[in-house]
Structures are given as C-alpha cells and as structure tokens.
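Hi P.,

Sorry for the delay on this. The queue was packed all week, but I finally got your sequence through. Input first:
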Amino acid sequence: MQDMARVPHPTKPHPAMTYKEPASVRFMRYGMTAFWVMLVLALLYVGAWFVTSMSLRSGVQDWFAARQAEGYIAKYDDKRARISGFPFSVKATIKDVTLAPPVGPSGERPWVWAPKHVTFSITPLPWSVSTLTVDLSARQVLTVNRSTYSGKAKTFALTLDWMSDGLPADLRLLIEGLSLNAQKQGAPVSIDKLTLQASRLSNGDYDFDLNTTRASLPSGLAGMGRRVDEIIIRGLFNQNFAQNSLDRVQLGQWRDAGGTVEINRIQVAYGPLLVQGNGTLALDGGLQPVGAFSARIQGFFETLEALRRARVVRGPDASMAKVVLGMLLKYPENGGQPSISLPISIQDQAVFAGPVRLINIPTQNW
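Then the structure:
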C-alpha cells in the first residue's frame, strides 16, 4: 500500500496580518506629531524670548549703573524704556540718553554725548543670543571742548559679544554718513565711513583693524586743520590685554607682564602729510605711552612748516629738523612727491623724528 503524501491544508491569512493603515490616517498621525513638536518648540522659543528680554533690560541697567559708579554721567528716561521685536528679535529702546566721562584735571568733562534714543537688539537663538547690536544712528548732540554739535548718521551700528568679560571677544563698528552741525559758530563734524573690527584670538591676543575715510574732526592739530582723508591702523594687543577688565590697575599689570601694542600697519593722510609705517607701543612706569616706529613720510617739511607757523613746533626745533633730516630726503626717479624714511619715537611725553623733538603729548589720566 503506497503512502499518500500529506498535503498541507491551505490557510487563509488573518486580516490583522495584512492590514495597511490608510494614507489619510498616517498623514493625520504625522501631522499631530509635528504639531506637538512645533508647539513645544514655540513655547520654548517664547520662554527664551522673555528670558532674553529681561536679561537685556537688566544688562542695560547694570551697565549704566557701573558707569555712574566710575564717575560718569550715565542716564536715560527709564519710564520711557521699551521692549519690542517679538517674535524675531528682542529690542530694548532707551530714550533721552546722556553719557559723559568723569571730570578731568581741568574740572570739566571733556565731552558729553546725548542721543535721542539708542536701540539694543538680540536674536534669541542659542547660536546668536550672545551677539548684541546697538543702533546709535538717531539724532544726537555732542559737546566737545564747549563746542556743541547736533545731527545724525545714516548708519551707526555697534555689534559685540555682550557676554564677554573685559573687552568684547568680538566687536564690529560701522559708521557711514555721520554729519553733525555746529549749533553756534564752527564747522561741521563728519565721517564718510569708519569701520572697526576687533576680536580675541585663541592665544589671548586682541586683534584690531581700523579704517576711516574723509573725516572732519571737532578740533584738529593746530596748523593742520580738521580734515583727515584717511586713517588705517592694524595691529594687536598682546599678553591677554583687558581680558577681565580695563582700569589703571589692570593696565599696570598688563605693562608689567610685557604687554605691548604691535602696529603692523599704519597709514595716515592728513593735510600735506602722508605717513606709512609700523612699530610698537607700550606704557612706561607712569602709564604714559612710549613707542618706536619705522615710517616713510611724504610732505614732512610742509607739515613741519605748518606746525611751526601754528607754534606747535618751536622755531629752533623746526630749523634743526630741516637741517638734520633734510639729507635723508629722497626723490623718486620718475618724479613725484619726495619722501623721507626715518624712525619715529614716543618718549618723555613727546614725539621725536630721529633725534629732533617735534610735539608734546598731553598726560594720559587713566
């Protein structure tokens, strides 16, 4: 008898094993998940916005209080201060601001600055919350040496890392189209463009780059006028300069640690004078500036004569400079402005061109 092979009985799959979720249900479930995630993120963002707004307001108040403790005039109308910008940014606007440094040796404050309003803004996101932008372009009044100027700027923006100790780890300043007119007699003050970038390097040095074009100063060097066509200064402060704070004690400690300012490039176009060079600055035992530079100068003797006529440089010093330094004057082979290359030094509160004393430097009261 032949065994018959057992044939498996066909089975019908259970509906639960073959069920497929309808696309509409799946999309609804994904949508609800996304909704709850977005709701939680929105609540977290709103909370971060309010925390940032409170921190910004208290930070502004603390900064003004600290300046007052240092002898500054530092005030604004607290009742008119406003927080705005939700949801994209946090903005604190203060109005009727007055800022002036402590009283100097003459018994007066060297300057007083009074803008109609100043706006501080922050984007409350983890990667940008430490970056503060200050808008200073509002109409303002500036008093310097009893001369008062008023006006505004097209752009006057300061951006910095406001959570840094000491000098900001990153700082950027942009001024464009600043125009301040004298309220009484006097010429206007203006800056076509000024940029300043500074940052703390990984080794603690503080790097800076300043560029200014076509500026009219409140008061220029006698004999030279007020118009400066160009200023370029690039360099760095070494030895962890102002990493924690900046005051007389900290400056003394920085000097004692060997602190210097390395000027990699300096270029100044002022009246007939064009200076290009580099060098080093430091502080002496009395915290007064000392330094040594190598400079190439055009218009040296024209400048010297203008300073002599204005009695900034004494007649005998000007005559000696012309005799001693005249032999160093070089004329380009293809014509053009002659130039002179010579060492410039700062010591004993005076500027020297080679061995010749040119002008005195006022005492710096830190």
